[in-house]
């Protein structure tokens, strides 16, 4: 048995539910995670049609894949914004156009879905960054004044550039886009970057964007995880090291399930133990890989940062807290398998984590509220 601070000692199947059993040394961890459904809670629908303003044509906007969801609680319900891919383009990852659909649930598992997407590439000032390609991989937080802040990937196959875009809404239906979080000028103007989770605090069982030392904070990045700050949740500034480059908080670990790289997951949460960040971990291929996880698979891990300094790492799990086990988590567009967490909420006295599986479906797992 590995000598870890955190050890996933057993994957057990209880009534069809795969639940990692955890040891108790790391009481800061949000978990253990148990699947709330053995089947996808959101799956593709070929019959959904949308009149696309960018092309002027009707499209089957969620025909192929529905995955990588954001989540927020509003009016006692869970709202999930999920990435949906149409049936255009080449049959390969990144070859289709993505839009964001909305699904609403009163129990966390069964959803009513909007017939049309609520966020998409349009003939607006962001068209050059979002066509052809679309909007992908959302994360969402609520601000103290009731506004909703959406971070997402802007992707254009024409330019090959992808950036983290930001948009706001009062009702989750009508959105105002602000463009790349690091702006369009300066040294980050030509950077390719994605995946952003804003630090939140718990208020009345909702996750609200948190100010620490008078600033908002965001974990961001794929390959390495970095930090940024903001005064308004719209315009962000990377925290840099002495070399003038973005400070690296988390990076790959040979022999672990994040031996390929870590990638920012859902919005982080300020708890009594510190700031808990769930992140997505890609397993490498070859000798540096975790042999207990499939090569190339994405799992969920967790990291703890100091509450008074979001850049100071205190602890990090050694093994996944959630990993692809079920058939639909390991087959589909990304057959290596994923449990790719992006949506985290408190609801009905439990944590709910919405994740993308195999770049094809949306799943959900729950955990006790103990790390609050």
Q: How would you describe what is shown here?
A:
The structure is a single chain. With about 375 residues, this protein is mainly beta. It has a single domain (about 10-370), classed as Glycosyl hydrolase domain, family 43 (Tachylectin-2, Chain A, 5 Propeller). About 0% of the residues lie in helices and about 45% in strands. The protein has one helix and 28 strands. Strands 15, 16, 21, 22, 23, 24 and 25 form a seven-stranded mixed beta sheet that branches. Strands 14, 17, 18, 19 and 20 form a five-stranded antiparallel beta sheet that branches. A hairpin with a 6-residue loop joins strand 4 (about 50) and strand 5 (about 60).
**Sequence stretches where pLDDT stays below 50 over 5 or more residues:** 1-25
Radius of gyration: 19 Å
User: Largest sheet, described in full?
Assistant: 7 strands, mixed
Mean pLDDT: 92
Task: Provide the number of structural domains.
Answer: 1
Number of E-type strands = 28
End-to-end separation: 30 Å
What is the helical fraction, as a range of percent? under 10%
CATH fold naming: Tachylectin-2, Chain A
Beta-strand portion reads: 35-45%
Number of helical elements: 1
Q: Report the principal-axis shape.
A: globular
CATH class: Mainly Beta
Query: What structural class should be given to the helix and strand makeup?
Result: mainly beta
By CATH, the superfamily comes out as Glycosyl hydrolase domain, family 43
């Amino acid at each position: 048995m590995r000598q870890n601070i955190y050890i996933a000692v057993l994957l057990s199947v209880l009534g069809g539910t795969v639940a990692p059993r955890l040891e108790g040394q790391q009481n800061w961890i949000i978990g253990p995670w148990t699947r709330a459904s053995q089947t996808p809670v959101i799956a593709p629908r070929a019959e959904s049609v949308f009149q696309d303003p960018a092309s002027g044509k009707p499209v089957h906007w969620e025909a192929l894949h529905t995955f990588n969801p954001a989540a927020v609680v509003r009016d006692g319900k869970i709202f999930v914004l999920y990435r949906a891919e149409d049936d255009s383009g080449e049959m390969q990852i990144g070859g289709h156009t993505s839009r964001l659909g909305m699904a609403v649930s009163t129990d966390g598992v069964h959803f009513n879905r909007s017939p049309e997407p609520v966020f998409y590439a349009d003939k607006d000032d962001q068209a050059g960054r979002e066509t052809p390609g679309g909007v992908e991989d959302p994360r969402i937080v609520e601000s103290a004044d009731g506004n909703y802040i959406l971070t997402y990937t802007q992707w254009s196959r024409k330019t090959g550039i992808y950036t983290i875009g930001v948009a706001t809404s009062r009702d989750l239906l009508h959105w105002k886009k602000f463009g790349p979080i690091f702006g369009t000028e300066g040294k980050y103007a030509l950077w390719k970057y994605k995946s952003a989770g804003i630090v939140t605090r718990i208020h009345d069982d909702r996750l609200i964007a948190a100010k620490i030392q008078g600033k908002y904070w965001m974990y961001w990045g794929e390959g390495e995880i970095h930090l940024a700050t903001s005064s308004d949740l719209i315009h962000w500034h990377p925290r840099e090291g002495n070399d003038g480059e973005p400070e690296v908080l988390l990076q790959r670990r040979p022999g672990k399930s994040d031996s390929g790289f870590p990638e920012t997951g859902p919005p982080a949460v300020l708890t009594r133990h510190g700031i808990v960040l769930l992140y997505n971990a890609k397993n490498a291929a070859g000798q540096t890989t975790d042999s207990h996880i499939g090569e190339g698979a994405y799992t969920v891990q967790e990291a703890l940062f100091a509450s008074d300094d979001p850049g100071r790492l205190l602890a990090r799990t050694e093994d996944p807290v959630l990993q692809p086990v079920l058939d639909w988590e390991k087959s589909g567009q990304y057959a290596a398998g994923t449990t790719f967490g992006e949506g985290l909420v408190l609801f009905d006295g439990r944590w709910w984590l919405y994740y993308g599986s195999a770049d094809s479906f949306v799943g959900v797992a729950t955990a006790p509220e103990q790390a609050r």
